[in-house]
Amino acid sequence: MKKLLLLAFALPSLAFAQPAAADPAALRDAALREDTVAWNILEGLTTEVGQRLAGTEAEARGREWTVRKLTELGFSNVRVEPFDMPVWVRGEERAEIVSPFPQALVVTALGNSGATPARGIEAEVIGFDSVEALEAAPDAAVRGKIVFVTHNMQPNQDGSGYGPFGAPRRTGPTIASRKGAAAIVVRSIGTDHHRNPHTGVQNFAEGVRPIPAGALSIPDAEQLQRILARAGDRPVRMRLTLTPRDIGRRQSGNVIAEVPGSDPSAGVVAIGGHLDSWDLGTGAVDNAAGVAITVAAAHRIMQAGPPRRTIRIVLFGAEEVGVFGGESHFNRHRADGNVVLVGESDFGADRVWRVNFNFAPGNAALADRITALLAPLGIVRGRDRANAGADFGAWATAGVAAVDLNQDGSRYFDYHHTPDDTLDKVDPAQLRQNVAAWTAMLAAAANAPERIEAAAPAR
Amino acid sequence: MKKLLLLAFALPSLAFAQPAAADPAALRDAALREDTVAWNILEGLTTEVGQRLAGTEAEARGREWTVRKLTELGFSNVRVEPFDMPVWVRGEERAEIVSPFPQALVVTALGNSGATPARGIEAEVIGFDSVEALEAAPDAAVRGKIVFVTHNMQPNQDGSGYGPFGAPRRTGPTIASRKGAAAIVVRSIGTDHHRNPHTGVQNFAEGVRPIPAGALSIPDAEQLQRILARAGDRPVRMRLTLTPRDIGRRQSGNVIAEVPGSDPSAGVVAIGGHLDSWDLGTGAVDNAAGVAITVAAAHRIMQAGPPRRTIRIVLFGAEEVGVFGGESHFNRHRADGNVVLVGESDFGADRVWRVNFNFAPGNAALADRITALLAPLGIVRGRDRANAGADFGAWATAGVAAVDLNQDGSRYFDYHHTPDDTLDKVDPAQLRQNVAAWTAMLAAAANAPERIEAAAPAR
After folding, report:
1. Averaged over B73-79, what is the pLDDT?
2. A-contacting residues of B 98-117, CB under 8 Å?
3. Which partner for B312 in A405, B208, B270, B444 could form a disulfide, CB atoms 3.0-4.6 Å apart?
4. Residue A322 and residue B124: Cα distance in Å, rounded?
5. Residues of A in contact with B196 (CB under 8 A)
6. Subunit contact B423:A219, Cβ cutoff 8 A
7. Which of B48, B102, B196 sits opposite A195 (nearest CB)?
């Protein structure tokens, strides 16, 4: 069989469906047993490129590396679709308690944070348990101070803590600035206990003055809570130095590759992940993994012979800092009118545990076939409407069918956006399970004889 | 009972043994159930002082804090015994791969590391799997390069990996310098996978030129191995900046406190931990925990009424950087001739799992009584000769009886000497088990009617 596959690969015009190889279950099981494509991409991208902050030369090296790899793997129409975006880069980052208990704390700047002078600022710290408590405080109590906001996010398999417990990062800086705070530090939006702070994007609301905005590592946030409690009536004073800067508009881009389908009228199945990462780790979990998983699955389908529908891999630039790549891709290609299904892998590399669809009633049988193919991998069918992730989300909202292969998020927020997002956090067996799940879904969807359509959105 | 204990505490001259309270098993069980003294010391010292690098003002604040706390708790003869020592302090620390795969790596300087110029040095990296492989390499292959030495330390309950797998840190820098290396970086001596490097002391052998010597975090060490493997024939070049410096001799000190015994002729039982810590974390596990555990146990014995023997708590300065406090204490007090038993807690805060003795044959019954008191805590008797830890080791070597209450080391080297050595790593229930074990041992030993003597050392 290996010989036949190699032949099919070398001579695409002679390729034909291998009944055994093209069987979705057989492809799935082979991926689970022996996939090495995903690991090789994951290791290569994170080792030979490392971090890939959007709009920087590191992200550009990531695109070059990926174009070379996709070409080597035999994909068609490998290309970069560039776009421009505003770029913010990190500077010095230091926090220390000046009194009453002098000591250094570990801090990192949040995306789009304002800057302190190079020598830092020193001010009294005022602590809040939530953004609601901050919002309720009199402006006079906050003015000129360094606001500290904590939270109690816990790990959940479905990642549902990130929305509500992410508020200190997403809205805290704007609220603090409106109240006249000198700066804000939040407890990192995460679930670990390591001294690696979690960065992440935040955007000051229109007209709000950017103030320095940082995240303390979780042990440091807990330390600051104890310091505030033990200080009693004594003011707790912090010196904070954050010197990020905006460097203007730069180029980013989406990397695209295809497995041409045998039936041009059947439409395109578009899948992928994002190539950019935050700058603190090597972006293994977020999101070289998604790149590796979706490319490996498409590669396996390609090796089995051309699918009915074209499979398009889209590896987005600049997701972390504002989904600029997703927006660019949607605006550029929506009018093409040929994409019938979208799906993104962007929640790490732990096993897929659930599948969700947004299919039209007429596609119930296809959803059932996919669900049945995924069940041997331990995957259950959920009751949520698939949303296709950040980068493809606009497509699903616009009425394109989507499949979400939800990954286990129990430890995702231990590493998310931290220096600790490195290759050693990925379990090779769980990575293969992801490839198997995407392979099975793709084999079913790309070869489905029926039309694929989304359900009308709920009113 | 609480009222009676408070009375005994407030009016020591009226104190008398409470038959129930002084029962070792009852004291042990009360500690296990309800001790709060240890946690309060641990939280207070790590929060109100933080890191306590030997010979610095932070360690001095640690002594002041501890003297105040021991006095508040009602101990007698609370004092500081000062000594001088050479002090090395950390500077800037940065490592980056310049080519072929540019990226930053996380590094920290090892104790007594030499310094690079402020702008750093740039050189080719040469990697070794062990110090033996480094030793065997021709000098010409190493000269002018940055040596990288890795290892494969795994966690063990008894901590036995630290000796053999610590060689890259302890002897690597001297070997590399002798061979003309420009610098050395080692894989951190640890068992975690977080981007927090492990510092630790090393001493260049007499006459060997100090070179910059750092530890990469374990994910970064693994990354460097992959970079070397993927670079193939291309040289891997690193820029390394480490700017520590020696600041001359400064004062450190040991903090001492006592529970006076009822029988001055019965000798002294001396226990403790070390007050200093490395500068990266807050020294919760290493070794505010040992301070907290031994103080809490002695306090519980004190509250039950005076023991037969005086219990002396010694909280050592400057252990991490060369056991200067232990050496000072031994030299100052060995001639007193009254210490009959020593024991140190310096292996974190996880549960005690084993007890070892070095008792003379005539003390077999005492060892059996202690073993029986510890068994309900899940503690087994080992077959090793007790060594009393780094700070009291000289006493055991000199023929004083010792008890080792060995703690579970399975995760100790995840945090040891890293920024991650913080309060959140301590499990309050396991901390209480430690206090219970020390309380039981102290109750038995301090009140033992027999003389306590060490076995003659093995020849």
Report:
1. 98
2. 100-104, 106
3. B270
4. 39
5. 194-196
6. yes
7. B196
Distance CA A259, CA A309 (A): 9
pLDDT in tens, B4-39: 444 344 444 444 444 444 799 999 999 999 999 999
What are B206's two structure tokens? Answer: 């007499």
Per-residue pLDDT tens digits for A123-150: 999 999 999 999 999 999 999 999 999 9
ipTM of this complex prediction, to 2 decimal places: 0.92
Residue type, B300: R
Taking one residue from A and the other from B, the number of pairs with CB-CB distance under 8 angstroms is 89
Q: What is the rounded distance in angstroms from the CA atom of residue A53 to the CA atom of residue B272?
A: 49
Q: What interhelical angle do B289-303 and B2-10 show, nearest 10?
A: 100
Whether residue A424 and residue B222 make contact (CB cut-off 8 A), yes or no, is yes
* N- to C-terminal Cα separation, chain B: 51
Contact B367, B351 (CB under 8 A): no
Classify residue A100 by its DSSP letter: S
The pLDDT of residue A22: 74
Residues of B in contact with A150 (CB under 8 A): none
The helix or strand, by DSSP H or E, that contains position B297, with its residue range, turns out to be: helix B289-303
Query: Hey, is the C-beta of B36 within 8 angstroms of any chain A C-beta?
Result: no
What is the C-alpha R_g of chain B? Answer: 23
- Flag residues of chain A having pLDDT under 70: 1-21, 458-459
Assess A68–B contact: CB distance below 8 Å, yes or no: no
**Nearest one of B276, B47, B91 to A105, comparing CA atoms:** B47
Q: What pLDDT digit, counting tens, does each position of B397-421 carry?
A: 999 999 999 999 999 999 999 999 9
Q: Is there a contact between A101 and B223 if contact means CB atoms under 8 Å apart?
A: no
CA atoms within 13 A on the CB side of A183: 29
Q: How many CB atoms lie within 10 A of CB B455?
A: 16
